[in-house]
Design goal:
single chain; alpha/beta; Rossmann fold; 2 domains; 8-stranded mixed sheet; 5-stranded parallel sheet; 17 helices; 15 strands; elongated; binds nicotinamide-adenine-dinucleotide
Length: 455
């Protein structure tokens, strides 16, 4: 085992290593969050190695191609640091970890088909760390985990071999990631971060390091589990509020009330935080984070009934999109079977190339079951194969060949569309699940229009 030069438990040592730029960093998991994190560490002047099991990703990066095309700003940072000795990537964790003082874990924490959180990547890497960590190293977990995961699992996995003893010769803390895909550079340089350590000294040392790299406000938490509890609370707050407005929007639809109008006015009240209804909640965070808290509750015998019902509401929204679509076909006296429907937007949220847990997939599968031929146009997925469908190259070419269009993602491009383009469809059926089409102009353009929650 290589001896780490720097004692990561000693504030003066760490400060000196930052100033002399001798602190060596290893980021394990260089995906959506980990790669920008690694680039930021390297840009600050610290020698940084990124580790990932995805060989193609490593090849792409090593050939000088930045894989995150929808992360403005990081393409330039990538071009800058890739030319220096400060940044390198590898699949070989066994080479990278023993030579590093700081190991940052940005590993995926997805869930399985039964909505059970899957921490296998973290557990696997923790097992590797138990033999690879140099004495006096510091591990920081940025992945989103349940409160108590560090204290109850990570520490004992890493200290499985007798060589490593927590708080004696290895140290651990958390700095949960809270950046938004598509805005990571902005968020990394402006959003406050939570810091929790295995003890107060480690929390202070993590703040020193993150202040050196990111210069954002760092909020010290009493321990790791509280930091992770805050991270989950903020995201689950959104999941619940989206469920709340989505459920309201179903009722407003029946009452002939436009939810957009309600929310615009409600926003004027000083303590109302606006959230918007839609076709469902996807992505790598919100749905999983709710299930992470539900998993904790189940484990310790607590009850989180609001989160449970919110999940049900959000998961039922694609079914409502189907209902609106069927309704509009009945209105047009047209059978949905064998019809051609264009899905506008498949990303789980606007202006990013990301389809993880996207409601678009559920809507597409439901429509296919009814015998619909699905076409997809998404500016972030041009001429690619997604969900077994070849996506369109442009909107103009496909629009005249379809019977209906469903706006599933509120991409900026769709907000800027001239509504008359929908008159080119074979039958002008338009479903808007994101509140971006004005119902009056849809009516004036003689469209058969259904807007989710629009009355
Ligand atoms: N993407 C987001 O919007 C976001 C925002 C905040 C927090 N997070 C959290 O950050 C964490 C990372 O998320 P992400 O979106 O960057 O995930 P990602 O899937 O984009 O990246 C994870 C990377 O880890 C690699 N990996 C998996 N197992 C590995 C192993 N055993 N060894 C080495 N590498 C391995 C994968 O190949 C992948 O490149 C998750 O916990 C997530 O919940 C994500």
């Amino acid at each position: 085992m290589t001896t780490s030069k720097i004692n990561m438990n000693n504030l003066e040592n760490v400060l000196e290593s930052l100033n002399s730029k001798s602190l060596k960093v290893c980021i394990v998991g260089i995906g959506r969050i980990g790669l920008p994190t690694a680039l930021s560490f390297a840009k600050s002047g610290l020698k940084t190695v990124g580790v990932d099991i995805n060989e193609n990703l490593i090849k792409t990066i090593n050939s000088g191609n930045f894989p995150l095309k929808d992360e403005p700003g990081y393409d330039k940072i990538f071009d800058q640091v890739i030319k220096t000795e400060l940044f390198s990537v590898t699949t070989k964790i066994e080479d990278a970890v023993p030579n590093s003082d700081l190991i940052v874990l940005s590993l995926p924490t997805p869930m399985d088909e039964n909505n059970i959180p899957d921490y296998s990547a973290l557990r696997n890497v923790a097992t590797q760390l138990s033999t690879l960590l140099s004495p006096n190293s510091l591990v920081i977990v940025e992945s989103t985990i349940e409160p108590g995961f560090i204290e109850d699992e990570m520490v004992s996995i890493i200290s499985n071999s007798d060589k490593l003893i927590i708080e004696k010769n290895f140290f651990i803390g958390v700095c949960p990631e809270n950046a938004n895909p598509g805005e990571i550079l902005h968020d990394f340089t402006s959003l406050p971060r939570l810091v929790g350590g295995i003890n107060t000294n480690i929390a202070k040392i993590i703040q020193l390091i993150y202040n050196f790299v990111f210069s954002v406000e760092l909020v010290e938490m009493p321990n790791c589990k509280t930091a992770n509890a805050v991270k989950l609370t903020t995201n689950v707050f959104r999941d619940i509020n989206i469920a709340f407005v989505s459920e309201l929007s179903l009722m407003f639809e029946k009452l002939g009330i436009d939810t957009n109008v309600v929310l615009e006015a409600a926003k004027k009240k000083y303590n109302f935080q606006v959230h918007y209804p839609g076709a469902g909640v996807g992505g790598p965070c919100l749905p999983i984070n709710s299930y992470q808290l539900l998993n904790t509750a189940k484990r310790i015998g607590s009850n989180l009934s609001i989160i449970e019902s919110s999940r049900k509401i959000n998961e039922n929204m694609p079914e409502h999109v189907l209902k609106l679509t069927l309704d509009s076909f009945v209105d047009n006296k047209k059978s949905i079977e064998n019809s051609n429907i264009l899905i506008l937007g498949i990303s789980y949220k606007p202006n990013v190339k990301d389809i993880q847990l996207t409601p678009a997939e559920i809507i597409i599968k439901k429509l296919q079951k009814l015998g619909v031929n699905i076409h997809i146009y998404d500016p972030y997925f041009i001429s690619s194969d997604v969900f077994g469908i070849r996506t369109e190259q442009n909107l103009e070419n496909i629009i005249s060949n379809v019977d209906a269009a469903i706006i599933v993602t509120g991409h900026e491009e769709f907000k800027n569309l001239d509504i008359s383009i929908f008159n080119k469809m074979k039958s002008p059926i338009l479903i808007d699940t994101r509140g971006i089409i004005d119902p009056t102009s849809a009516k004036n353009n003689n469209l058969i229009f259904r807007g989710l929650g629009r009355g």
